[in-house]
Structures are given as C-alpha cells and as structure tokens.
Amino acid sequence: MDPLFIDLLRLGVLPDQGRFLDLGCGQAVLAAWLLAAEEHHVAGHWPAGWAPPPRVQSLQALELMPRDVARAQRAFANEPRVRVEQGDICHAAFEPVDVITIFDVLHYFPFEAQDGVLRRMRAALGHGGLLVARVGDAAAGWRFELSRRVDQAVTLVRGHGLSPMYCRPAADWADALRTLGFQVQVVRTQGGPPFANTMLIARAPAAPEIR
C-alpha cells in the first residue's frame, strides 16, 4: 500500500465530509481507499487515535488514459457518489469542490501548464478548500534521481514512452501555491521506498467573519 494513502488518514488531513476532485486518478485507487475507510469506520474497525475518515459526498475522478478510465468505471458502476471521466487535466473544466487531490502528475506538464493547472485548482476551491498534492522534490539529491528513474521505467512499461519531466524543488512548489493565497504545509513521505516524494497540504483562506 502506498504510504501516502495511509498518511492522508493517519494525519487527519482531509475534512469530515466534502466533494472531492481527484486529478490524474489512474484506476481511481484513492476513491476505493476512501470508501473502504468509511466502511471500516462504520463497522468499528478503525485505529485508535485516528480521526474518522471523511464522508465522501461526491468524488469526480479525472484520468487521461482510456484503459484506466474503463477499468475504474466498471469498478464503480454501482457507486453513485463516484464519477470517473476521461479528460486532459490541462484543459478539462474543474467543478467547484471542497477537496482536490493530484498525486505524481504535475511534473509531466511544462512549467507554464503547471502554473495554469494550479490557478484553475485554486479557482475551483471555495473558502477553506483543501488541495493535497504529491510531488518529487528536485532538490532531494539521489532520492530524487532514484524517483525520476523509477518514474521513467514505469511510463515505459505502461507504453507511454520516455515522457519528459518538468520538476521543481518542493520549496518552489510551496512558493507557487502561497502566491495563489494558499497556506502550505510540506510533509515528507514516511515509509516505503526511499523516494523524494513530498506531500503538499494547501488550504485556501477561510471565509471572512461577518461582524
């Protein structure tokens, strides 16, 4: 199991409930993980000291690769809360949501396109909205180089060829998000292979108090 999915729940990153948008969802593993967490919590099988998992009101999952989309659509055919769609993140419309997740995807886009996606994600989040991203930290030395080589190997195995990568140090990602008004927390992934994976937890400002 990817340690990121465990950290999302162990650290209580996600809100109690909400509308989710998962960008670059693959086969919608995150959706399956969140719904399974709900079931385990309701059944009383939940780790002591962990916050309850979020109640998913709706989850839109967007993926470019048609085969992954088809598999995910079959898996969630009887789950009305989950909608898996094929589309290009750089051009697809983002509906208003409470939480956006984007894991291991942004570095495939040229820098200008990355900034455009960040701006559109910010626009889709209302007051207090949450963005959780995982990026490779280009300043992490040999860990980053290992991550990059494994990433390229995976894309080759999946038939995508040698995709160019547009990577940034984690500090630069955090600065780009702060420029858009987010409050940003940088969390290094614990456990798993020694990659340069870094989770960015970015919160949009809360609604101003009405006096």
From TrEMBL:
GO biological process: one example: methylation
Pfam families on file: Methyltransf_12
InterPro entries: Methyltransf_12 (IPR013217), SAM-dependent_MTases_sf (IPR029063)
GO molecular function: methyltransferase activity
Entry keywords, A to Z: Methyltransferase, Transferase
Gene3D superfamilies, per database record: Vaccinia Virus protein VP39
Domain of life: Bacteria
Residue ranges of every copy of the Methyltransferase type domain listed in the record: 21-131
Protein name: Methyltransferase domain-containing protein
